[in-house]
Amino acid sequence: MAMICANCGKGVVFGQSQKHRRGVAGKRWKKRTQATKRLFKPNLQLANVVVSGGVVKMKLCTKCIKRFKKDKKIYTPSRVSAVLG
């Protein structure tokens, strides 16, 4: 399964994580902290969304879920059965 939001296309991003090392004033190269590669993953959730009159289960990031809740396009499981009849 792809780690991509179905609405906005947000996906995984590569970056670096750094430890905090104390006592490194003066930016000495010898005592520089390690920067290890890591993967930042989006917070994806399955949500029931109203699409053209029907309810579809989509994988959305939490930012899109908040946006859809504001527009009243997200349905909880109990409301899905009521909409579908």
Automatic annotation (TrEMBL):
Belongs to the bacterial ribosomal protein bL28 family. One of its GO terms (biological process) is translation. GO terms for cellular component: ribonucleoprotein complex; ribosome. It holds the Pfam family Ribosomal_L28. InterPro entries: Bacterial_rp_bL28, Ribosomal_bL28, Ribosomal_bL28/bL31-like_sf, Ribosomal_bL28_sf. PANTHER family: 50S RIBOSOMAL PROTEIN L28, LARGE RIBOSOMAL SUBUNIT PROTEIN BL28A. It comes from Candidatus Woesebacteria bacterium RIFCSPHIGHO2_12_FULL_41_24. Keywords: Ribonucleoprotein, Ribosomal protein. This is Large ribosomal subunit protein bL28. The gene is rpmB. One of its GO terms (molecular function) is structural constituent of ribosome.
